[in-house]
Write a structure and sequence with these properties.
The chain has two helices and no strands. The longest helix is centred in the N-terminal third of the chain and has 27 residues.
Length: about 55
C-alpha cells in the first residue's frame, strides 16, 4: 500500500476517534472521581511494567 494512501487512512481514523469516540468517552468518565482514575492508571502501569519486563 502506498504511503500516501496509508496516511489518508490514519488521518481518517484519527478524525473519527477524536470527533466520534472521544466525546462519548469523556461524557462517561465525567462522573468518576479523579483519584479513582489515578489509582487505576498507577495499578495498570505497574501491572504492565511487571508483565513486560519480568
Amino acid at each position: 500500500m502506498k504511503e500516501e494512501r496509508l496516511g489518508h487512512i490514519y488521518a481518517t481514523l484519527a478524525f473519527l476517534f477524536w470527533g466520534g469516540l472521544s466525546p462519548v468517552y469523556f461524557k462517561e468518565v465525567a462522573g468518576v472521581d479523579a483519584f479513582e482514575i489515578l489509582l487505576y492508571r498507577i495499578i495498570f502501569l505497574f501491572l504492565h511494567f511487571f508483565l513486560f519486563f519480568f
